[in-house]
Amino acid sequence: MSMSRSAAPGPLTGVQVLDLSPFLPGPFCTQMLADLGASVIKVESPRGDPARTLPGDLHDVANRGKRSVVLDLKAPDGQALGRQLAGESDVLVEGFRPGVADRLGMSYSAVQAVNPGIVYCSVSGFGQTGPLRDSPGHDITYLAASGVLPLPGEWGAREPRRPGVPLSDLAASSYAAVAILAALYRRKETGEGVHLDLAITDAALAFATVRADCCLAASVLDEHLHPTNELFKTADGATIALGAIEEHFWQRLAALLAPEFPTIAEPRFATATDRRTHGDELSALLRKAIRTRSAPQWLAAFEEADVPAHRVLSVPEAARSPHAQARGIVAENPLGHHVTFPVLYNGAPLGRSSGPAPALGADTEHVLAGDQVQRDPVPVAGHRAFGALFAPVNRAAPGYLTAARGLGDRPVHGQVIEVESDHLVVAGQGLAQRFSTDAGPGPVVKAAADGAVRAAR
């Protein structure tokens, strides 16, 4: 599909990020940091990030190349290990409602006590202050609260419509990434950490003011629309986007259409103000005209006339397009392809290619055994705090993580995909293994080197 790029060092190489955030706003922010070279450790509960269970690729897109560590932050041992990880990190991103990080022992004050220079970013729906701070929400409710939804996106639209992408979540991700980079830059000068408080609704409101000033009257919320800046159906059923806003583009469009549709050259469409005043008539005329030819015919004509137009593509079509391939922003990973950080740096992609999103808890033992945290030399496999790190077997259910000792006494981390009264099946590390659970509640499942499966306390 595209050329493969090695995981070359990025500009943030050496920066460690601890990601405690679920779903999209925080993870997409830390994904951008990972694309730029940061090492990102994603801390998940035994149940995992809820995004793992959502349909589609949201979790995979927002967590490429990260390492997954499972901690039960509701348990004292898990909290202590979480703070140790924070003590070794440059950045911490949390995505809980206000007060939750405090209850999990990972508040800014608790983390700052072990790491005064931490850049701590809280991403929440309504921020850490204000009357709505404790309210639940998701992208659509944040868009509703920020004034985005009433803004029409096409000529003649009157009712609120949601965008096809989670705009408020992505706005928050973008502002969070910029704020984190600014805080890291400032820390080089001062040595001081900071608590960044980012409300998703604030980010969406900032985006909304591009279309509507904060004090704009509701009656003129469509002033950004143009009947010549729209989507149009063609004779072959395709949809093309036309962007003839500026006067010179309008003149070229009118010259192209006038031989067959002379009405378009009438004085009532002469100026931009005239075209908006008579927008309904002009919109109907353009739709009638463009339905007379196929998309390839129109796109060839628009290209020759130098009028901005493009066929509406699906995401796979856009990623496979010759232009995307030439730009080099579609990179390969072991499970397929992904769009990396979409900026070229001296002509080359700035973002590094990365692997797929990790399996739940895939890196727990590696990280906690000393790769990132200095801790007492207690073997993780025999540590009774295992219950703080992994879901006990007696709580296992499809989608939960389990901690098991596999063949050769090697740890197996993965997701439970089948649960019965006497066994469970764990998928992870490229294979599925069956473990007995008949030793009573809460055992750590263990398999001997000879392959005999048994349960051990």
Automatic annotation (TrEMBL):
<dbReference type="Pfam" id="PF02515">
    <property type="entry name" value="CoA_transf_3"/>
</dbReference>
<dbReference type="InterPro" id="IPR003673">
    <property type="entry name" value="CoA-Trfase_fam_III"/>
</dbReference>
<dbReference type="InterPro" id="IPR023606">
    <property type="entry name" value="CoA-Trfase_III_dom_1_sf"/>
</dbReference>
<dbReference type="InterPro" id="IPR050509">
    <property type="entry name" value="CoA-transferase_III"/>
</dbReference>
<dbReference type="InterPro" id="IPR044855">
    <property type="entry name" value="CoA-Trfase_III_dom3_sf"/>
</dbReference>
<protein>
    <submittedName>
        <fullName>Crotonobetainyl-CoA:carnitine CoA-transferase CaiB-like acyl-CoA transferase</fullName>
    </submittedName>
</protein>
